[in-house]
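for the writeup, i need someone to sanity check this before i put it in the appendix. the sequnce is what the collaborator sent (i think, or maybe the updated version? ugh). structure was predicted straight from it, no edits. if anything looks off just tell me and ill rerun, i have time this weekend
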Amino acid sequence: MVDDPTKEDIEIFPEKLSGALNGDQVEVELLSVHPRPRGRVVKVVSRAKTEFVCTVKAGKVIPTTRALNITIDIGATPEEGTKILVELLSYDGKVAKGRLVETIGKAGEHRVEMNAIRYRARL
């Protein structure tokens, strides 16, 4: 993020994000300056967020936030319809790998949904 208001933002197309997520600090290579600065992410310096509440759907671990449209491979997948807390270990824009931090419970149950909201608020 550039703090200088006289500097123009660098446009980065989704296919050039190299696994960067919203809020991450990244290193960018400038590819062109006209008509507008464009670049690509060279390296994710630090993640803004590494833990995500996810739901197991159709055997896949899907983050519950709509802004993160990926599937995270955590190895052995918990039971269908389970809400879990996952730590994102790596993501290169194609393959996301993570580890199960905690099983929150069965999706749809009041206690589980309230705990999921609490986790999302703290993350």
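The chain has a mean pLDDT of 90. Strands lie at 25-32, 38-46, 51-57, 60-63, 72-73, 82-91, 96-106.
thx in advance!!
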